[in-house]
């Protein structure tokens, strides 16, 4: 948590700007940082924790932490990205990865970082660029954090405008996701469950569902993370790219990969002047899915409450 040491410790939700990140404090304590596409990497939130301070995101590669897995270094905290945008890879954007046709993200401006008594919102604009630096997209991201003694809730909205004709290709490598703490992963004893009550990667990966919750042990306590797909999103409900090793993501584009039907095409094309919007909610909770009343929380979210 050394990354957050400079956050002011007053107020309910407060922000402090640094050159490459915005620090977030909730209820007078450092909470997370929104990294503003440093070095062309994708924007991401790290770390994330419960209201009691139990960290639910993997620390690697941002900080050393004993006993963690060190695979897939591009899976940083909480993020939105996709592996095929006009043929460029925005999913794996580690600057030293050497991936051919790798996209990059660049901060255009921070529009606002508005503190609040019960919630606070960051608004920032980013440009998605091809490997030569030519603009492909303009993305406006709005992230709202809520104060609560029980839950940590984050609303994440992305509005994408194409610079020209824009195609999201059919690949499982996407799109809105989180890399869970190693001890929460299914292959370390954790559990994933979707809205239909299906459990384990075998029954959740590649299936469509309005929400998925992943829970497991951290420091001996059961904690979980739920991702909600907003009913207004394109192609709702989305497919889930949720892996036993700790990747937890939703993706509407990878239809061919998820269904195994090579005749299908999940790509989506936007023409210049026609944007697209995605909205999600992330709920970080104590206990398992049932104890946290995840189904009820989603019902309230879906109804607009």
Plain-language structure description:
- The protein is mainly beta.
- The chain has one domain (2-302): Distorted Sandwich (Beta-galactosidase, Chain A, domain 5).
- The protein is 6% helix and 41% strand.
- The protein is built from three helices and 18 strands.
- The chain has helices at 201-204, 255-259, 294-302, and strands at 13-18, 21-26, 29-35, 44-46, 78-82, 104-114, 119-129, 135-146, 152-162, 166-168, 174-179, 191-194, 211-218, 221-229, 239-242, 247-251, 268-270, 276-286.
- Strands 1-2-3-4-5-11-16-15 form an eight-stranded antiparallel β-sheet, with no helix packed on it. The chain has an eight-stranded antiparallel β-sheet with strand order 6-7-8-9-18-14-13-12, with helices on one face.
- It is globular, with a radius of gyration of 18 Å.
- 46% of the residues are buried.
- The model is unreliable at 1-11 (pLDDT under 50).
Fold topology:
Elements: E1 13-18, E2 21-26, E3 29-35, E4 44-46, E5 78-82, E6 104-114, E7 119-129, E8 135-146, E9 152-162, E10 166-168, E11 174-179, E12 191-194, H1 201-204, E13 211-218, E14 221-229, E15 239-242, E16 247-251, H2 255-259, E17 268-270, E18 276-286, H3 294-302
Antiparallel strand pairs: 1-2, 2-3, 3-4, 4-5, 5-11, 6-7, 7-8, 8-9, 9-18, 10-17, 11-16, 12-13, 13-14, 14-18, 15-16
Strand residues, percent: 35-45%
Number of strands: 18
Question: What gross morphology would you assign?
Answer: globular
pLDDT under 50 segments (min length 5)?
Answer: 1-11
Total domain units: 1
* CATH architectural designation: Distorted Sandwich
């Amino acid at each position: 948590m050394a990354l957050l040491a400079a956050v002011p410790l007053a107020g309910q939700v407060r922000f402090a700007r640094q050159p490459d990140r915005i620090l977030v404090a909730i209820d007078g304590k450092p909470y997370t940082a929104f990294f503003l596409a440093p070095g062309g990497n994708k924007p991401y939130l790290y770390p994330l924790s419960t209201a009691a301070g139990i960290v639910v995101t993997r620390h690697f590669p941002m900080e050393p932490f004993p006993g963690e897995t060190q695979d897939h270094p591009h899976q940083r905290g909480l993020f939105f990205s996709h592996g095929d945008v006009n043929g460029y890879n925005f999913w794996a954007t580690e600057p030293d990865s050497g991936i051919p046709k790798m996209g990059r993200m660049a901060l255009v401006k921070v529009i606002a970082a508005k503190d609040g008594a019960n919630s606070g919102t960051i608004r920032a604009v980013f440009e998605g660029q091809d490997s030569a630096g030519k603009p492909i997209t303009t993305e406006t991201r709005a992230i709202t954090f809520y104060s609560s003694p029980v839950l940590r809730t984050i609303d994440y909205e992305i509005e994408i405008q194409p610079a020209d004709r824009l195609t999201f290709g059919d690949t499982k490598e996407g799109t809105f996701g989180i890399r869970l703490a190693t001890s929460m992963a299914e292959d370390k004893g954790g559990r994933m469950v979707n809205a239909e009550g299906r459990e384990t990667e075998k029954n959740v990966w590649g299936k469509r569902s309005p929400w998925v919750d992943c829970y497991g042990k951290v420091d001996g306590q059961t904690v979980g993370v739920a991702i909600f797909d907003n009913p207004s999103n394109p192609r709702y409900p989305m497919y889930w790219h949720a892996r036993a090793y700790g990747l937890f993501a939703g993706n509407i584009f990878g239809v061919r990969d998820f269904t195994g039907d090579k005749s299908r095409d999940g790509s989506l094309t936007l023409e210049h002047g026609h944007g697209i919007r995605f909205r999600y909610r992330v709920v970080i909770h104590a206990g398992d899915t049932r104890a946290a009343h995840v189904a009820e929380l989603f019902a309230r979210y879906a109804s607009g409450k």
